[in-house]
Each structure stands twice: as C-alpha cells, then as structure tokens.
Amino acid sequence: MENATYATLTRQTGLMRELQVIANNIANASTTGFKAEGVSFSEHISRLGPNDPSLSMALARVRNTDFAQGSLAKTGGSFDLAIEGDGFFLVQSPDGERLTRAGSFTPNANGDLVTMDGYPVLDTGGAPVFVPQGLGPIGIAADGTISAQGRPIGQIGIVVPADPNSLTREGSQLFAASDGFEPAQDAKVLQGFIENANVNPIEQISRMIQVQRAYEMGQSFLEKEDERIRGMIRAMSK
To answer: Is the pTM here over 0.85, yes or no?
Structure first.
C-alpha cells in the first residue's frame, strides 16, 4: 500500500473520531456542567528502511477539553449551585473521588447532599455533606459554607486539580484527577444557579459539516486510488 493511501486512511480514522466527539458535544448541549471536547491531530513519521521513503500518518488520539465557564442559569433552588471561576465540586463516585461542575444537588433520604446520580457531595475534609432536615431555609455562602438558622453546619468542598492536564473525563460530567487536587482559592459558589454546558451548538454543527466534507473528499480519493491500482493490475496482466 502506498504512502498516500496510508496517510488518507489514518486521516479518515481521525476525522471519524472527531465526528463522534462533535456529535457527543451536540448531544450534551443541554447537560448541566458539561465541558465541550475537541480532537488534536498530529503527524507520525516512521522510517521504513535505509532505501525506502518514510511513512507519514495523521493521528487524532488526543481529546482535549474546553474548561471555559458556561453561562449561569438562575433556578432559585436551594441546592442548585454554580461555581464562578476556576474550581470543581468534589463528589464520591463508586470509583473514588471525582470532580464536577454540575451543581444540581439534592438531599437524599438520609440527609446527605447528593448529585443527580446519587453520588455524595463531599465537604472540605472529604466527608459527605449532611444537611439536617426541618431547620428551615438553607443558605450557602460564596465559600461553600452551609448555614441553617444563621449557624454554619458544614462547608462544601471546592477544589482545583494539582495538574489540569491530568484530568480524565468520565462520562459527561465527572473528571478524575490522577495527580490529586487542592482547595480552590478564587472560586465563588452561587446558590440558586446552575452552570450550563459551554457548547455552542451552531459552531459545533458548522464544524461537523466541515469534517463531513473533508471525510467525503478523503473517501473520493480512496475510491479513485483503488480504481487506479486496479487499472494498473489489469494493464500489467495483459
């Protein structure tokens, strides 16, 4: 197989992967706290032999996340929270502590504050946040301190990853921080708000059209290259 065909095939694979990422962005445009993804292309060059030309392939194995803040929507809910600035809520998933920007929380039957998936929200010490029932309105300050009847009863943990590049996406709203995390310094918690996805559907659809056209051009090239090789084989076999 010629280098041109190798390069086109690897490019097609990368474009297909990008289409999948874009489709996932569009599907989560209404998901609270969702962060848009992109794909980074790189070129891999391999030396085949001392007398052979090198082989160039396009790779699209790196998926990068856009952590820009999404717009804030006012809900008025006592346990709907949004973070203004850099920071994440800390929650306990079945696989360990995870970070999220999705702040649609609610107390469960035991009084623990949990996510929509039922994962406990953790406080600054890494323990589940407990919200006593029957104490009247609950207030949550900008630093995450929870108060009832004017008395503090806990503080929601707001953290940042020690290395932002170490974050690994899990599902649509959770991130694992392999290098750990530390308390956020400049984040501000807003009660009664949630953060919308930072996806721009119009831009994503426009990009999808561009990628689809690029994929179609690559497919056309492969079909013509196949016909050319077949023609050469037929001519040589006569």
So the answer is: no
